[in-house]
Structures are given as structure tokens and as C-alpha cells.
Automatic annotation (TrEMBL):
<dbReference type="GO" id="GO:0050660">
    <property type="term" value="F:flavin adenine dinucleotide binding"/>
</dbReference>
<keyword id="KW-0694">RNA-binding</keyword>
<dbReference type="InterPro" id="IPR001269">
    <property type="entry name" value="DUS_fam"/>
</dbReference>
<keyword id="KW-0819">tRNA processing</keyword>
<feature type="active site" description="Proton donor">
    <location>
        <position position="124"/>
    </location>
</feature>
<keyword id="KW-0285">Flavoprotein</keyword>
<feature type="binding site">
    <location>
        <position position="191"/>
    </location>
    <ligand>
        <name>FMN</name>
    </ligand>
</feature>
<keyword id="KW-0547">Nucleotide-binding</keyword>
<dbReference type="GO" id="GO:0017150">
    <property type="term" value="F:tRNA dihydrouridine synthase activity"/>
</dbReference>
<dbReference type="InterPro" id="IPR013785">
    <property type="entry name" value="Aldolase_TIM"/>
</dbReference>
<protein>
    <recommendedName>
        <fullName>tRNA-dihydrouridine synthase</fullName>
        <ecNumber>1.3.1.-</ecNumber>
    </recommendedName>
</protein>
<dbReference type="Pfam" id="PF01207">
    <property type="entry name" value="Dus"/>
</dbReference>
<keyword id="KW-0288">FMN</keyword>
<keyword id="KW-0521">NADP</keyword>
<comment type="function">
    <text>Catalyzes the synthesis of 5,6-dihydrouridine (D), a modified base found in the D-loop of most tRNAs, via the reduction of the C5-C6 double bond in target uridines.</text>
</comment>
<keyword id="KW-0560">Oxidoreductase</keyword>
<comment type="similarity">
    <text>Belongs to the dus family.</text>
</comment>
């Protein structure tokens, strides 16, 4: 699980200076393996907060269910080393509807894990989640949402944030965000969509700006980050300047470019392939026998693009069942590319 690496109780939300850049919590994506890969590909200083996959407090507090979900709290030692090196904070995201279970889970996070902070999921729009009254459905029960925040605050002195949306079936930014601003949260991360939109349509950054205005009026000490449709650090900076947010959280943008937090860098084909190899190797060594190989396949496309032969390479990788097969395919591809390069150079010499 990793030993705790926070030796002081400094609240990073209160002590942060300048824009805060965060990688969003994503199910079956932001595990310890992918977080480490992102850290390795990032330029130090460009990434401040890494969020975990979201963990069910119901599952965690269930005598049998705990074993099925606790892997989301796993942190590899190799990730911890990079976190120390880059002074990045690791945040555990949790979800549910029972304040008492939130209390128990938060207490465990604070006392038994390597996480530096806690985030409450009040934004996930998935139907199987909201039918339980959890995540974005909590927008409809503001009093329960406040009770949950209070429970987590009482269980732990770790920095506390809430990730949410601007409404459920319709936009209710003013009433909902005002409610959260009167809670014990240190930060609010606002996704510019309502639950009904899922991930479709355009994120409404004007509603995020309205959230900033409310923050400035009600509780200026709370940090407020924006989230939605940001595809580069440059665009993140534009959002900070235009909408007044204290930083930006990025989700799907990382799939368009794993080097998102190293904006001046343009990786060559060989570097993309080696990043894929690293990711697959770490996944195999971390999750063999715990998580299926098929989960990893969603990542192949983010590395195998923008170079000749990428489509064919990706098709081969999608048929793999383990790391040994991936390594063989990558090695064969690189040998083939080198042979083609040498053949072209030979032809050029003969033509002179």
C-alpha cells in the first residue's frame, strides 16, 4: 500500500501559489500504473495533483466487498519515488451516500495509505451510480451532500475537495455551488456540464465562471478549479485568465496526449513505443492475477498514433493477452522500421 509520505499537515489547497494543474480521477484509468507513466512523461512542476480511481465507500465498508475495491488505494513504491521527486500530491477519490461509511473510509485513508488528500465524487453521471443516489445525484440532496462533507472533515485532517457538476437535469449553479461553498471543503472542482449531458456536448465555462463569482462572494478562501474540454497546458492557462479559476483539472485530454504536462515536448515514434512498453510492463507486474489484461488495451491508441504503421501496430497489440506478446510485437516493429530506414538510406546512396 505504501507508507505515508506526508510528514506535515500543510494544506496544499491553502498553500498553493499560482495555477493548480490536476489529473482527473477516471475509472480503470488513473491507477498507480498510469499515474506513474504520466509522472514520468511530465515536466517537473507542471503537474500538482494526481487523483485516484473512485472507490465505493459501501464496498470498502462491506466485510466481503472491501477486497474487491481496496486495490484502488494501491500505490507502487516507484510511483511514490516520483511523487517525492516532483512534489506532487496524491488524492483519493471516494463516493457513496452514507456519511458514516464516508467517515470510516476517510479515516482509513488518513491513517493507512500514502494519499495526501481526499476528494468526494459528486460529479459522476453514470446511470448505475446515480440510481443509488450517489455522485452527481447528490446535487438533488444538498443537505445529505453537506453531511457527507462534514463526516469526511471530522474523520481526517487531510485536505478535502469536492468534484461536481453545475446541475443534474438542469443547471443549478447558483443554489448548488453556494451550498458547497458553505461546507468544510477546501476546494471545489467544477465540471461545466450537467449530469444529463454525460460527456456529450460542450462544457459550459460560463457556468464555471459563475461558480468563481459565487466563491468570491461567499467564501474567498476556497480554491476553485475548472474541468471540461481542455486539451493543452496553453488552453489551461487561457481558462485561468479568462474565467478566474485557480487551476484546471484535465480528464480526456490526457488520452489525446500522454505528454500533456510536458507541453514543449514532441515525442518521436521510438519514445511513444517505449512509453507503451513501460506502461504494459508496469501493468503486468502490478496487476497480474488482480485485474484483466483487457483493461490495458484502451491505452494502446494513445501511444500508437502519428507515425507510419501505427494503425497496423495497434491492431496487433489489441490481440495480445500479456506483456510478453506486447514486447515481441514492439521489438519486431522496431526492427522492421530500422530495416526500412536502412533500405531507404542505401537506395539514396545508390542514386548519388
Amino acid at each position: 500500500m505504501g507508507e505515508r509520505i506526508t510528514t506535515n499537515k500543510t494544506n496544499y489547497w491553502k498553500s498553493s501559489e499560482g495555477p493548480v494543474w490536476a489529473l482527473a480521477p477516471m475509472e480503470d484509468v488513473t491507477d498507480t500504473v498510469f499515474r506513474e507513466v504520466v509522472l514520468r512523461l511530465s515536466s517537473p512542476g507542471n503537474l500538482h495533483l494526481l487523483f485516484s480511481e473512485f472507490l465505493s465507500t459501501d464496498g470498502f465498508c462491506h466485510p466481503v466487498g472491501k477486497e474487491k475495491v481496496v486495490h484502488r488505494f494501491h500505490v507502487n513504491d516507484s510511483e511514490l519515488e516520483l511523487i517525492k521527486r516532483d512534489n506532487v500530491k496524491l488524492v483519493a477519490q471516494i463516493w457513496g451516500t452514507d456519511p458514516e461509511k464516508f467517515y470510516k473510509t476517510a479515516k482509513y485513508i488518513a491513517e493507512e495509505t500514502a494519499f495526501d488528500g481526499i476528494d468526494i465524487n459528486m460529479g459522476c453521471p453514470m446511470k448505475n451510480i446515480i440510481k443509488k443516489g450517489a455522485c452527481s445525484a447528490l446535487i438533488n440532496t444538498p443537505e445529505l451532500a453537506r453531511e457527507i462533507i462534514t463526516a469526511v472533515h471530522e474523520a481526517s485532517d487531510l485536505p478535502l475537495s469536492v468534484k461536481t457538476r453545475v446541475g443534474f437535469k438542469s443547471v443549478v449553479t447558483e443554489s448548488w455551488i453556494s451550498n458547497l461553498l458553505q461546507s468544510e471543503a477546501d476546494a471545489i472542482i467544477v465540471h461545466g456540464r450537467i449530469q444529463k449531458m454525460m460527456s456529450e456536448g460542450e462544457a459550459d465555462w460560463n457556468e464555471i465562471a459563475r461558480s468563481v463569482e459565487l466563491r468570491n462572494q461567499i467564501n474567498p478562501d476556497i480554491k476553485l478549479l475548472g474541468n471540461g474540454d481542455v486539451m493543452s497546458i496553453e488552453e489551461s492557462l487561457d481558462k485561468v485568465m479568462e474565467y478566474g479559476v485557480d487551476g484546471v483539472m484535465v480528464g480526456r485530454g490526457i488520452f489525446h496526449n500522454p505528454w500533456f504536462y510536458n507541453p514543449a515536448y514532441s515525442p518521436a515514434m521510438e519514445e511513444r513505443i517505449e512509453a507503451l512498453r513501460l506502461h504494459a510492463s508496469l501493468y503486468a507486474s502490478t496487476w497480474q492475477g488482480v485485474k484483466p489484461w483487457s483493461i490495458l488495451k484502451r491505452f494502446f491508441k494513445i501511444y500508437t498514433n502519428s507515425f507510419p504503421g501505427a494503425v497496423q501496430l495497434r491492431a496487433q497489440l489489441m490481440e495480445t493477452h500479456g506483456f510478453d506478446e506486447v514486447e515481441q510485437i514492439l521489438n519486431d516493429f522496431l526492427l522492421e522500421q530500422e530495416a526500412r530506414k536502412q533500405a531507404k538510406e542505401s537506395e539514396a546512396e545508390d542514386a548519388q
